[in-house]
Amino acid sequence: MKNSILFKRVYMAIVISVAVIVCQVPQSVAAAGPVTSHDNVSYGGKTYFENKITPQKKKTVKPGDSLSSIQAKLDEGGIILFTSGTYNLGVMKINTSNTRIEVVEDAVFNMSSNILFDIRPVTVTSPRIENVEIKTLGNGRFTINTNGNKGGDKRPVRITNVKNFAVSGINIAGNYEGQPFVVLAPYQDGSPGTIMVNGEQTYNPIFGLVPTYGVIQNVGATGIHGGYATVQLFGGDNILLRNIDGDHGVTVRLEPGSGKDTDNMSLAGPDLGSLHDIALVNIRNTNGFTAVYMKPHAKVNHDITLENISAVNSAFAIHADVAEFKADDNVAVTYGGETYNVHRKRGRFENVKLLGDITLTQQGVDKLAWFAISDVLYIDYSKRDGSGNYADYAPSIEGSKRLTTPIVPVLMISQEHRTDTTFSVERGNFTLDFSAANIQSIGFTHSLAAHGGVLYREDARTKTNKPLNEEQIQDY
Known about the structure:
Elements: H1 5-23, E1 41-43, E2 46-49, E3 59-61, H2 67-76, E4 78-82, E5 86-89, E6 92-94, E7 99-104, E8 108-111, E9 115-119, E10 129-137, E11 142-145, E12 155-159, E13 162-173, E14 182-184, E15 194-197, E16 200-203, E17 212-222, E18 229-233, E19 236-247, E20 250-254, E21 275-286, E22 290-294, E23 300-312, E24 316-320, E25 329-335, E26 338-344, E27 348-361, E28 369-371, E29 402-404, E30 410-412, E31 433-442, E32 454-456, H3 470-473
Parallel strand pairs: 3-4, 4-7, 5-8, 6-9, 7-10, 8-11, 9-12, 10-13, 11-13, 12-14, 13-17, 14-18, 17-19, 18-20, 19-21, 20-22, 21-23, 22-24, 23-27, 24-30, 27-31, 30-32
Antiparallel strand pairs: 1-2, 15-16, 25-26, 28-29
């Protein structure tokens, strides 16, 4: 297949941009101040955000200002202050470097579009934007009401292809929409994950244009769909997520792509758009699925730290899942009038360390925890409903999950046996290092949980309480 001249120009521009970006590594600086300050933000000896926006006269926005007038101020960059009151707004595009949005803590945004704050360059070939911040003024959080329908599309904050950014001080009131509320993803323009360059199949470099060196902190959400999250990383390098909470659903989802045959991210190779150098600190979930969910699909992700992860009346604190397609998955891709095959291998997470307290707490006896069909055989046999079929359990409020009491702090569907130490490409296994963590089940126990609250694939039990045979353990 012959590429168009435009596509070749796009490809070359992106390759050059990526090369420049790789060379620009922030220098280490002092530790961060309070969450609401304009100081640099560091964790574990690494600086994730540097305050490079110099003090200047602020441009003020008030409720009732037109979207076009607000957008004009955003296009100029600098500091834009949203005063108290209620805003009914569509998408606000933040595509100018050196922009800080400050929002008074009692301000309320009612969304009238699928995205509210859209942080990314104007086009895929535009230079990467740098030094962007959205923050609340005061010690509280401003509010975003999604105003969506269950299963719909509402993403209050979308971030892609930006370097040195921070988002903090937001409460998101959702309605179980079928999207993550804060999304970090590669820049996507509808192009496939694999393209033809000079007659050769090549992973599309736009999927390497991910958010890098950034912070999301002091952000919470309610009304989270069971398949989505307060914050989801589809792609990113050197990202700190700190003090993130969620009610229902998932709080933080580390899941690059969807793994579907139509998922261009999964078809962009193991490295472009994957997750590198990610730190999650103080992540909490209540009455939901899990505080942290991990699923690699076709990506090789590495250097992940999970510190102080907690959940109350949820099914899990950490749920590590495995990619589902086979070792060498052949997907037919049609683009530009030609069809060719793309091969995917199961991805993994490498060098994942659990630190601090990893806790799951049961309060009361009500069945408030959400779980998926893949988890049903890990529920303690004495606590199962009916005959143990998934359909025997009551559905969650938005219908994507079922309800039970807390199951276990850490579920590792990603690891077949507790003695496993190596990764299997064929079966997509990966392990977590929790040797430095304090894992606790509080207010309940699981009869098979090891290390204070960890289950592996071998710990699953059939509907008649029988251990799985080796074929069943490997059948993922």
